[in-house]
Amino acid sequence: MFRSNVLVCGGTGCTSSNSEAIIEKLHEEINAKGLEKEVNVVRTGCFGLCALGPIMIVYPEGAFYSMVKPEDIPEIVEEHLLKGRLVKRLLYKETVVDDSTTKSLNQTAFYEKQMRIALRNCGVINPEVIDEYIALDGYQAIGKILTEKISPEQVIQTMLDSGLRGRGGAGFPTGMKWKFAAANAADQKYVCCNADEGDPGAFMDRSILEGDPHSVIEAMTIAGYAIGATQGYIYIRAEYPIAVKRLQIAINQAREYGLLGKNIFDSGFDFDLELRLGAGAFVCGEETALMTSIEGKRGEPRCRPPFPAVKGLFQKPTVLNNVETYANIPQIFLHGAEWFRSIGTEKSAGTKVFALGGKINNTGLVEVPMGTTLRTVVEEIGGGIPGDHYFKAAQTGGPSGGCIPASLIDTPIDYDSLLAIGSMMGSGGLIVMDETTCMVDIAKFFLEFTVDESCGKCTPCRVGTKRLLEILDKITSGKGTLEDIDKLEELCYYIKENSLCGLGQTAPNPVLSTLKFFRDEYIAHVTEHRCPAGACKALTNYVVIADKCKGCTLCARNCPVGAISGTVKQPHVIDTNKCIKCGVCMDKCKFNAIEKR
Amino acid sequence: MKSLAELQAIRDKAKAAVNLRDNGEVNTRVMVGMATCGIAAGARPVLTAIVDEVAKRELGSVMVTQTGCIGICQYEPVVEVVDADGTKTTYVKMTAEKALRVVNDHLVNGNVVTEYTIGAYQK
């Protein structure tokens, strides 16, 4: 029996900041001190507070160490694990009350307002050990369904009653999907999992698969039982090597325990899973393209109807849900549909995981009940905007979503409220922007992405997004006209209405929503040839404010193109023709004498 | 996997290890002196005995930790129990066997094992 558990984050974020070396060093030091029988080192999934990684928690004290370096490990082992004294300098500052007291993690601003259902096991269990998942009621849900002979109809009814809606973005009721697929008779049906998370800045699906892969496997088994499928596929991108590895380990362990395979729980029900790796095309996150890709063909969308529930994978009835949707399902069966329904809002039950990124202090993963306001997420959980900057807008839904301006920061986050203001839930990327971000530039950024990722099958998307990008390019370089803005808007609606799949239908959203809330910025670009945020390089110039310049020559010496001239102790001048707008002079100036205009 | 009972067995076996990771409602703290003096006097087997027994009895609200030297080195191994109301009991000259009795009498049933306390020893 171990007296202490040391949990080290093994998610992608912390792994890339060297948590593997920390684990190695921990084992080394623990062995050197002869504590290997007393202290258990566990590599877990993501804790959520990625900004402070690598993260490590020591139980039973629950001490939360942040930004740990391998060099810190001898001190932690010696002081904390051997002598029982917390290493204060490494504790997460929010948990330190005063010299002798710390508070639990769940009382810190970042975790307090969160409610973890999909992420409940992430950062708690070792994802590579099935027993730890079982210890926390894992596989109880499917066990109960199969041994107590709950009928597939009842399972689907529970799903309908829970009010769970697809977490991939569109928010279609999951129970309805299952019901349609169950109603279509066929010799073979399939259950698929969409783990092709492609939105820039979104990483919740990855974290769930890395931290709690068994929850997805269990839920897919439940789905298989409900619709009468015996085979499932998880479509995951090859760029997620840790998630792929842990999923494969989890599938193998589940097979070993007979939780996948033939005659599960002696009920006569067979179900097995396989992984399919995607090469990373954004369009393969669209359901029909995803299934085409599993079939071994080029990942291109097909026409709907027929919907996947009628003719999906290999032309058979198929249920396709997102990773986060699945992660909620075992909990619904353990605690009941009523419990799930009581969380969140009336039309959006449960919680939603968001990947917080951009100009925010606590970058990371947060899970909040539906209906939580954007203000709570950004200001309280996210810890606000760094520096002296202020909140300008947040982009939800990545390249398919839209922006929420500061004036709507009190909007509750749920499917319908976001749609009403022209954005969408999306898969859960939440990119926060401050006043130095140009909204036209942001729209251009997302359009560049969709132009790259458009599969080219239908013309409105292939050609239309390209034309949109060209107009945006023209505007950000100061050559646009007011007619261009009108043309831009008209083209957006055309693309929305005529594209074949979700990629094209939502691609103009970033443009439309920025036009709706920040039209003045577009107009400033074309009529005044000015970028209000100072982000568009073609429209900004660096100038020396003569009154503030002391003539220290620092800027002139650092300018890579020699665009700054002037004599010592005399105000300098920037030659705007030579200037490449790199901003070095502004960074170097000690007197704030250089301004962007 | 053939039955729920089989699943339950795995669950029960794995539960103790994972339970440690929930510091939700701790109301009793057991602190074992693990400074040089404590370790030299044999605190390690005492600590492991307590940890094992607490896990076996599934005492979820008990947190077993170690602490440094509290200055009564002649009485090591020292185990201090802080109850929910903040009452502190100091057990001295502990052994693994005595520790088991403390877990059973004090932690489970709430009866202080008077003869092992520092008060009894100093008489």
Report on this model:
Chain A has five domains: 4-107, Glutaredoxin (3-Layer(aba) Sandwich); 130-341, Rossmann fold; 351-434, Ubiquitin-like (UB roll), CATH 3.10.20; 439-527, Up-down Bundle (de novo design (two linked rop proteins)); 541-596, Alpha-Beta Plaits. Chain A is globular, with a radius of gyration of 27 Å. In chain A, strand 7 and strand 8 form a beta hairpin. Chain A is an alpha/beta fold and 597 residues long. Chain A is built from 23 helices and 18 strands. Chain B is α+β, with helices and mostly antiparallel strands. Chain B has one domain (24-122): 3-Layer(aba) Sandwich (Glutaredoxin), CATH 3.40.30. In chain B, strands 2-1-3-4 form a four-stranded mixed beta sheet. In chain B, helix 3 packs parallel to helix 4 (96-108). The longest helix of chain B has 16 residues, at 4-19.
Helix content of chain A: 25-40%
Shape of chain B: elongated
Cα distance, first to last residue of chain A?
Answer: 66 Å
* DSSP, total strands of chain B: 4
Regions of chain A with pLDDT < 50 over 5+ consecutive residues?
Answer: none
Radius of gyration of chain B: 16 Å
Biggest interface pair, residues each? A-B, 40 and 34 residues
CATH architecture of chain B: 3-Layer(aba) Sandwich
Strand content of chain B: 15-25%
Task: Classify the secondary structure makeup of chain A into a structural class.
Answer: alpha/beta
Give the spatial strand order of the biggest sheet of chain A.
Answer: 7-8-6-5-9
What is the domain tally of chain A? Answer: 5
Q: What is the CA–CA distance across the termini of chain B?
A: 59 Å
Query: Which runs of chain B of at least 5 residues are low in confidence (pLDDT < 50)?
Result: none
Largest sheet of chain A: 5 strands, mixed
Overall morphology of chain A: globular
Count of discrete alpha- or pi-helical segments spanning 4 or more residues of chain B: 5
Order of SSEs of chain B: HEHHEEEHH
- Strand order, main sheet of chain B: write it out: 2-1-3-4
* Proportion in helices of chain B: 40-55%
Can you tell me the CATH superfamily of the largest domain in chain A?
NADH-ubiquinone oxidoreductase 51kDa subunit
